[in-house]
Amino acid sequence: MRIIFFAGKGGVGKTSVAAATGMATSARGCRTLIMSLDVAHSLADIFDLERGLLDQHRGRPVKVRPNLWIQELDIQEEIDRNWGEIHRYLSGLLNTTGLNEVLAEELAVLPGMEEVSLLLYINRYTRERRFDALLLDCAPTGESLRFISIPTTLEWYMKKIFKLERTIVRCARPLAKRLTDVPLPGEEYFTAVERLFLRLEGVDRILSDPALTTVRLVTNPEKVVIKETQRAFMYFCLYRMSIDAVIMNRMLPSGIRDGFFSDWLYSQSRYAELARTYFHPVPVFPVNLFQGEILGPERLAALAAEIYGERDPLQRFYEEEPYRLIKEEGRYRLQLKLPFVVKESIDLSKVADELILRIGSYKRHILLPKPLVATSSVTARVDPPYLNILFGGDGS
Length: 396
Ligand SMILES: Nc1ncnc2c1ncn2[C@@H]1O[C@H](COP(=O)(O)OP(=O)(O)OP(=O)(O)O)[C@@H](O)[C@H]1O
Ligand SMILES: [Mg+2]
Hints:
The chain has 396 residues and is an alpha/beta fold. The chain contains 15 helices and 15 strands. The longest helix has 34 residues, at 146-179. It is globular. Residues 14-15, 38, 42, 137 line the site of magnesium ion.
C-alpha cells in the first residue's frame, strides 16, 4: 500500500495533481482512493461530477471509475460518527456560558477535528487494506500543516496531561457543582477522548514510515510560492515525513513567442532552476501550463502523463529518511534532515524525557529514546541540509 499527500500553497494545483495521479494509478489497476481535506471540496468539480452524487454519500467514498474512489470529508457527519461525547460536552459548556444552542454547537467544532477525522480514516484504511493507494488532497499549507503535528501533540497530551486532568476533575467535581454552573467534563467525556486516542494509535508510525507514506509538494515557479514550499518542506521534515518529489506546476511552454510573456518565461526558468538547487536531491518534476482548465478524466489523464511520463506514480522518487539516530564515539546524535534552517532560529530545551525543538513559530516535542533521557547537555549543530542534535559533551 502507498499513501501520498499532495500539499502546497493555495491554488497551485494540488487537487488537480492528486486527481491526475489517481487517474494514472487506477488505470494501472491499483484500487485508489483520493481523499479531500479541503473544505472547498473541489474534487467532484474537477472530475466533472454531479454535485448531488457526493452529497448523497455524505462524506463516504464514491466510486467514480474502475478502481477509483473519491471521498470528501463532511465535518458534520464526522462529528456524529467520532466526536459524539466530546462535541456534546463542549457545546454544553459553551451553552452554559450564555451562547445560544445553535451557535454553541457550531463553535464546539474544535480546530483539528477535521484533521483528526482524516487521521482516523488513514489508520482504518491502512488496517483494512481496502485500497492500494490513498492520495490526500490537502488544504493550502498555511492552514493545513497543523494536522501533521496532531499525532505527536495528542500523544504528548495523553502521556503528560490527560491522566492528571481526569484525576483533578474527579476530585473537583463535587466542589465545582456547589460553586458554579459551568459543567466539568464527565467520565463519558474522558472515556471518549481515550477511545479516540486508541483509534488513532499507530497513525504516527504510518505517517513517518517512508516506505508507506510520502509527501509531494506542489508549487509554481514564483518567488512567494517557492518560499512557502520551502517552509512546508522543513515542516514536513520536522515531523518525520518523507518528501519524495516537488511538482513544479504551471510552467509556461518554452515555445511561446509572444513578447508579453517574455518576462514570465525568464523569471519562471530562473525560479525553476533555483528550486532544483533548493530541493536537491529531491527531484523536481516540471509540468506545463495547459491550454485551459483541467476538467474531466481525459484532461486529468493528460496531466498525469505530463507529470509522471512513463514512471509509476506510486514509486518513491526519493528514499532517504528524514530522521536518524546515530551513535558514535559513545555519544548519540539525532540527525534531522531540515534544509533551510538557520542556527539562530533554533531553540532547544530538554525537559525530562522530551526534547522541545522550536524553529521560528514551529514547535515539536520529541519523546526521547531511553539512552538519551539521562544525558545532561544538548546542543544543536547545523550542517546543511542536516540539523544535528548532539547529546552529551559540547557540540561545537
Ligand atoms: N498545469 C495546469 N495547467 C492549466 N491549468 C491548471 C494547471 N494546474 C492547475 N490548473 C488549474 O488551476 C486551478 C486551480 O487548481 P487546483 O484546484 O488543482 O489548485 P489547488 O492547489 O487544489 O487549489 P486550492 O488551494 O484552492 O485547493 C484549476 O482551475 C485548475 O484547472
Ligand atoms: Mg484544492
